[in-house]
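Action item from last meeting closed. Structure (281 res):
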């Protein structure tokens, strides 16, 4: 990676995106362009705070024009063209998405538009501008119904169980077409559940902590808390993105997880122990 590189981080105001930009600016790797629609899937105020934190932490980068935050959608083709022409993007980290599994069941069209069609627009521009690297944030949800455990990247992932997973898998497959037609370097990182500071309010760690301080918040414990999830700390996830940016694999899919799934009931016990509070179920 060279100092003249220009990184476009879509979804940069969100949880993972704001941490990635923090690291890119800290390492002083090049110019960083944040593109985010600040949608209301969860409070846009949280996203504005994430960006304000970056601007406070890196005032010189802002002053020098090395960090630019743009509010807009990856579905706005004209805006994308303007960004690519003006900033000569060399690397794309594509995180912008609707990311909720449950909410995807009632908004399939919206998920298709952003997670699939939006990704296609970016791939198109990435190919025509011959960017060096395109990193796409996918999800462990693509494994869906499979008997191949632990999840392995060579699984066909042909039986996703939610619209969210289906749109991400479809985008992964489309990315392969762009790699094949244009020799675009594409690395797909399949994230497992990510946790850490500035975590998403719709995810379990945040919900549990809220339930500790607000007894009116209850937690739905399905399956007697036996359900297991693999949790990955945000800094480790960001290490994976930085490593992926340094390599050009052609087309590669990589699982990014901890490899140590824990039961929901155990997770709740830990949070109760650490907070000294009881969580209402
Ligand atoms: N956090 C996790 O545990 C996890 C797990 C698996 C995969 N992922 C994937 O990682 C990526 C980042 O997830 P996150 O947890 O940071 O989610 P997030 O919701 O915090 O961030 C996504 C960002 O994308 C923005 N966005 C949505 N639609 C957009 C559009 N049309 N144009 C521009 N911006 C748009 C949102 O405003 C938001 O800030 C997503 O693609 C998600 O599917 C996350």
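Sequence:
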């Amino acid at each position: 990676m060279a100092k003249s590189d220009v990184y476009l981080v879509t979804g940069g105001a969100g949880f993972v995106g704001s941490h990635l930009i923090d690291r890119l600016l800290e390492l002083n790797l090049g110019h960083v362009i944040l593109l985010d629609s600040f949608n209301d899937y969860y409070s846009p105020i949280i996203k504005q705070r994430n960006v304000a934190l970056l601007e406070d932490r890196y005032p010189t980068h802002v002053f020098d024009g090395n960090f630019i935050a743009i509010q807009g959608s990856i579905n706005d083709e004209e805006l994308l063209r303007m960004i690519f022409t003006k900033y000569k993007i060399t690397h794309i980290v594509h995180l912008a998405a609707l990311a909720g599994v449950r909410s995807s069941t009632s908004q399939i069209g919206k998920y298709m538009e952003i997670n699939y069609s939006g990704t296609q627009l970016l791939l198109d521009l990435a190919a025509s501008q011959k960017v060096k690297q395109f990193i796409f944030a996918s999800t462990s949800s693509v494994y869906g119904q499979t008997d191949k455990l632990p999840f392995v990247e060579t699984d066909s992932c042909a039986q996703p169980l939610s619209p969210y997973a289906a749109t991400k898998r479809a985008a992964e497959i489309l990315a392969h077409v762009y790699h094949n037609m244009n020799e675009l370097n594409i690395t797909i990182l399949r994230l497992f559940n990510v946790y850490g500071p500035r975590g998403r309010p719709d995810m379990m760690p945040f919900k549990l902590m809220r339930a500790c301080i607000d007894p009116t918040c209850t937690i739905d414990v399905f399956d007697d808390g036996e359900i297991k999830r693999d949790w990955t700390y945000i800094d480790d996830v960001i290490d994976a993105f930085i490593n992926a940016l340094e390599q050009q694999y052609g087309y590669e899919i990589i699982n990014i997880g901890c490899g140590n799934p824990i039961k929901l009931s155990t997770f709740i016990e830990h949070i109760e122990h650490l907070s000294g509070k009881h969580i209402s179920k």
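Note appended to the action item: Residues 10-11, 13-17, 35-39, 41, 47, 73-75, 95-97, 99, 114, 118, 137, 139, 191, 193-194, 200 surround nicotinamide-adenine-dinucleotide (CB under 6 Å).
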